[in-house]
Design a protein that fits this description.
Layout (H helix, E strand, L loop, with lengths): L2 H12 L5 E2 L1 H8 L3 H13 L3 E3 L6 E3 L15 H16 L2 E9 L1 E8 L15 E2 L4 H8 L3 H11 L13 H14 L2 E2 L8 E9 L5 E10 L5 H22 L7 E2 L2
Parallel strand pairs: 4-10
Antiparallel strand pairs: 1-3, 2-3, 4-5, 4-9, 5-6, 7-8, 8-9
Helix pairs in contact: 1-3, 2-3, 4-8, 5-7
Length: 256
C-alpha cells in the first residue's frame, strides 16, 4: 500500500476523533505537508466520504460513512424510513425528504418528488446548518440542551440565508421549545423562499434523534391551511415508524 493511500485512510480515521478538520491542523496531525493533507481530504471529498462544513473551509463526514458495517437492509436508515416516505407522499401528493444529522449539519439522504411543480429541500449530501431550514431546526430541537448550547457557540454568529432565518440565539431557543411542545417543526421560508414545509422527528434509541421526515410543496399549493390539515395523518405514520426506530441498532452521527 503506497504512502498516499495510507494517508487517506489515516485522515478518514481522524474524523472518528474530531468531527471537523481543516487542512492545516490535519497536516500537523498526519505530520505531512499541507499539500499532502489537502490531497487526502480532496480524495475523500470526491469519493463522497466527506463534505465541506457549513461553517467554513473545513471538512466533516458525509452520510456515505453510514454504509460502513451496515450491509443488512434492516440496519439501513433509508430502508427503515422509505416506506413511511412513500405513505406520506401518497397522503399529501407533495415532496417528502429524509434527513439525518452529520456532524453539526443536516444532510438529506432520501427523497420522493411530487408531480408538477416541486421544491428542493436539499441536494443529497449537501450539509445544512441546524438553525436554518425546517428539518434542520427539528433535528436541533431534539438534541440535548448542552448540545444546542455548544452548536450555537461554535456556529455564532448564526448565518442568515433569507430574511426569516433565525439568527438570534434567544429566538432560536424559543423555536426549540416550540418544536418540542408541538412535536413537529413548521417552515418559515428560512432557508429557501417560495415553499412551505413541515418536519417530524424520527426517534432512535435512548430518545436520540435518528432523523427527520420533511414534507413540502410550493406556497400556492401547500399552504399553511393545507399543511395543518394534513398534520394528524402524517403524525399517525410517524407514530408507527417511531415504534420501530426506537429499536434501531445504531444512532446517527451526532458529533460536536
Amino acid at each position: 500500500m503506497n504512502k498516499g493511500t495510507v494517508r487517506v485512510l489515516n485522515a478518514l480515521n481522524l474524523f472518528a476523533q474530531q468531527p471537523t478538520w481543516g487542512v492545516t491542523e490535519l497536516s500537523r496531525e498526519l505530520k505531512c505537508s499541507k499539500n499532502s493533507a489537502f490531497q487526502a481530504l480532496d480524495t475523500l471529498l470526491k469519493e463522497g466520504y466527506l463534505v465541506r462544513s457549513s461553517s467554513g473551509p473545513r471538512y466533516q463526514l458525509a452520510h456515505k460513512v453510514l454504509n460502513f458495517g451496515s450491509t443488512a437492509e434492516s440496519t439501513d436508515v433509508r430502508s427503515l424510513c422509505h416506506p413511511a416516505l412513500q405513505r406520506i407522499h401518497e397522503l399529501t401528493s407533495e415532496s417528502v425528504f429524509l434527513a439525518i444529522l452529520v456532524g453539526r449539519s443536516c444532510v438529506c439522504i432520501d427523497s420522493i418528488q411530487a408531480q408538477g411543480v416541486t421544491v428542493g429541500y436539499s441536494p443529497l449530501s449537501q450539509p445544512l446548518p441546524l438553525h436554518a431550514g425546517t428539518g434542520a431546526r427539528l433535528l436541533l430541537a431534539y438534541l440535548k440542551d448542552e448540545e444546542i448550547e455548544r452548536y450555537i457557540a461554535l456556529e455564532s454568529p448564526l448565518r442568515a440565508f433569507t430574511p426569516t432565518t433565525i439568527t438570534d440565539p434567544k429566538e432560536l431557543w424559543k423555536e426549540v421549545r416550540l418544536i418540542r411542545d408541538n412535536g413537529f417543526a413548521r417552515g418559515y421560508q428560512d432557508f429557501s423562499a417560495g415553499a412551505n414545509f413541515l418536519a417530524f422527528p424520527i426517534i432512535g434509541p435512548m430518545e436520540r434523534p435518528l432523523g427527520t421526515i420533511v414534507v413540502g410543496g410550493p406556497l400556492f399549493r401547500f399552504t399553511r391551511e393545507v399543511a395543518d390539515g394534513m398534520i394528524p395523518a402524517i403524525r399517525a405514520v410517524l407514530d408507527e415508524l417511531n415504534q420501530e426506530s426506537r429499536m434501531f441498532p445504531s444512532v446517527p452521527l451526532v458529533m460536536f
